[in-house]
Amino acid sequence: MRMLRHRLLYAAGFTLLVASAVNAQTVPVRLWQDPRPIASRDLRWGSGAPDRAPLPPFVFVEETTTGTQPKVVAKDAAGVLWDVKFGPEAHAEVAANRIVWALGYFVEEMYFLPGGAITGASDLGRAANHIAADGMFFKARFRRRDPALPRMEKAWSFNANPFLGTRELSGLKILMTMIGNWDIEGDRNNAIHEVATAPGAPERRYLVSDLGGTFGRMGARHTNHSKWQLADYQGEGFIDKSDDDQIELDYDGLEWNMQVVPREHAQWFAEVAGELTDAQLRHAFETAGATPEEVHGFSSVFMRRVEALKAATRATASR
After folding, report:
1. What SS3 class is residue 107?
2. Tell me: the pLDDT tens digits for 5-38?
3. Distances in Å between the alpha carbon of 1 and those of 4, 5, 8, 226?
4. For residue 312, what is the enclosing H or E element?
5. Given phi > 0 = left and psi -120 to 50 = alpha, else beta, which region is 79?
6. How far is 228 from 41, CA to CA, in rounded Å?
7. Domain map of the chain by residue range?
8. Which of 145, 200, 154, 197 shows the shortest CA–CA distance to 33?
């Protein structure tokens, strides 16, 4: 009887293991979805919408102690929970979020608020410098906690994922260099959402979930990198060199193996990014709380990088 019980338990366990493996193999994964026509996309709202924006008044829920930036969780008048981030990343992340979304990569819904009040905040740590005693705050990024887009416990890295060797992953490497995202390391700051695209049909979407370390000076650990600094961003390189086979990016960040992409992948992404308009880029930076000087400066640099990518792929193709 004991032997029979062991055999039954083994068979049941083996069946569950096989079922899990089959399920893991059959759940579709996606890094990019075709956003065209790109010129019609509204970068003032990105993946969100006016009627989904944070609705005051806001009530404090808790302070978030993970990560390096001051953050709290707040509930708005509609009962929606928001992850609220302060500091220079509030600008950089919203602008980057809009551009990444416009070019077909997945993002989380977020908004920039120039100011407001979060009532009930007390015993604050890092956030004490950003939320006054009366609850007033200035310059914050609000990211919606959407129950329809749950994060999986596991994450992914640029060097371990189902998209190795694809043009979509190469395009994301180029885009991270374009916006100067040095703050990528392993699976930190990347996420996977399991989304129900239809009843009983989940889809796993891979995304860079933290885009705050952008639009400044790139650099690896213990170097003088920066965020949301126009002069630093203007001084950064983009393409080191190119030949008939590959483009070598001037990526300098925490992640390794980000520099080299196949020329044909770069050519594909140049065509995609080339559909962005100057007006759209200006909207992305305006909605992130940029000054007029920053709007012009950041959008001009990004547009020059798009043109540089086009020129590099044309030059190698014509040799």
Report:
1. coil
2. 444 333 444 333 333 333 445 899 999 999 999 9
3. 5, 6, 11, 68
4. helix 292-317
5. left
6. 24
7. 50-144
8. 197
CB-CB neighbours of 189 under 10 Å: 20
From CA 32, how far away is CA 168, in angstroms rounded? 6
Share of the chain above pLDDT 90, in %: 84
296 vs 19 pLDDT, higher one: 296
Beta-carbon contacts of 312 under 8 Å, excluding residues fewer than 6 positions away, are 239, 242, 247, 266
Is residue 34 within 8 A of residue 209, CB to CB? The reply is no
Q: Measure Cα distances from 42 to 55, 84, 101 in Å.
A: 20, 23, 10
How far apart (Å, rounded) are the C-alpha atoms in residues 132 and 127? 9
Smallest CA-to-CA distance from 254 within 180, 305, 309 is with 180
Instruction: Please tell me the pTM assigned to this model.
Output: 0.90
Instruction: Give residue-wise pLDDT tens across range 105-140.
Output: 999 999 999 999 999 999 999 999 999 999 999 999
> Cα(38)–Cα(78) distance, rounded to whole angstroms?
31
DSSP structure class, residue 39 = G
* Residue 155: CA count within 13 A, CB half-sphere: 15
**Chain position carrying tokens 């310059």:** 139
DSSP code of residue 275: T
